[in-house]
Design brief:
Two copies of one chain form a homodimer. By secondary structure, chain A is mostly helical. Chain A has seven helices and two strands. The N and C termini of chain A lie far apart (42 Å). At the A-B interface, helix 1, helix 2, helix 3, helix 6 and helix 7 of A face helix 1, helix 2, helix 3, helix 6 and helix 7 of B. Chain B binds a DNA duplex (23 and 23 nucleotides) through helix 5.
Chain lengths: 157, 157
DNA sequence: TATTGTTATACTCTATAACTATA
DNA sequence: TATAGTTATAGAGTATAACAATA
């Protein structure tokens, strides 16, 4: 095998040879497909992600949600505002530290997620239906190795 | 192995279990890293991609460039304009069809690419240095399978 | 002093719709 | 009629900087 796994000799096929480029195309396609499901619920992938993160971490403060979403804390403000106005989550001053907001799903938020999660799982299963379970597992393992290594820069827990 | 390759029982770990989510994180991290190289050249990943595509397809028309970049043709106009003004590529009426622009790299454009491509390759090599050649090859094969299947929707050749 | 949320603001990216010139 | 490029415009997403409240 050559030094580079998929390096072309010319620049002719440089772009397709780049893992970063293939990652971008794949991510674009997945999100486009996901968006179609989320459209029915008037949500974006980011808002959906926020709901899932809050569900998994009740009482989370906004700064931490921003870190999880890889966003600035100011960018999270309108997202939270939108979800609060739709009564999908509550934003209350935390008793432990009254500077911070404790985020929690409402009953409606839980209900929405319960309806949504199976659909998102279906979307994933459909989108990756060309892959066997073993292949999906391996692709997932690759991506996690990549992301978990990078993640340490973004954690502040 | 269970029905889903990495399906959690609760929604607690839903997000990390989604391939789409892991793809997004990976893509974000790669582009962030790539951007640091491109900053020195005052380029974005998209502009770099445009240069490489034009280099690989001299005389390409803008509509095709837009299709390759997964963008609307109106979105490509300011990109091309910027690269033309920087004298990295030329935009001339095509003789065969005088509605369309034939895009070509200038000598400066070629020169820039020659300087840039090794750095981008280095970036890739460094970013994926935790992976063996075989693993990179396999990850690449996975992503290509995914993208080549999806690609047919976007081709118009 | 440092941190949390917020606001005001600006910038980038992208798409839609309408125009023009060619076909 | 249809297509290629362009323009004007608007929307989404994001970041930066400064502020008030709290630590």
């Amino acid at each position: 095998m050559s030094k580079d796994a998929c390096a072309p000799q010319t620049t002719k096929d440089l772009l397709p040879s780049l893992l970063g480029y293939q990652l971008r195309l794949a991510q674009l396609a997945v999100f486009e497909d996901l968006q179609q499901i989320l459209d029915d619920f008037n949500l974006t992938p980011s808002l959906f992600g926020a709901l899932v993160i809050v569900d998994a971490n009740p009482g989370l403060k906004q700064t931490q949600l921003a870190a999880d979403l890889r966003l600035d804390r100011s960018s999270v403000v309108p997202m939270v505002e939108r979800l609060v106005q739709r009564q999908l989550l509550t934003r209350e001053r935390a008793n432990s530290d009254r500077r911070s907001n404790a985020l929690r799903l409402t009953a409606a938020g839980h209900g929405l997620l319960q309806e949504l999660v199976p659909r998102v799982r279906d979307h994933e299963a459909r989108f990756f239906s060309a892959f066997s379970d073993a292949e999906k597992y391996q692709l997932h393992a690759f991506l996690r190795r990549l992301n978990d290594a990078d993640q340490q820069d973004h954690q502040q827990d």
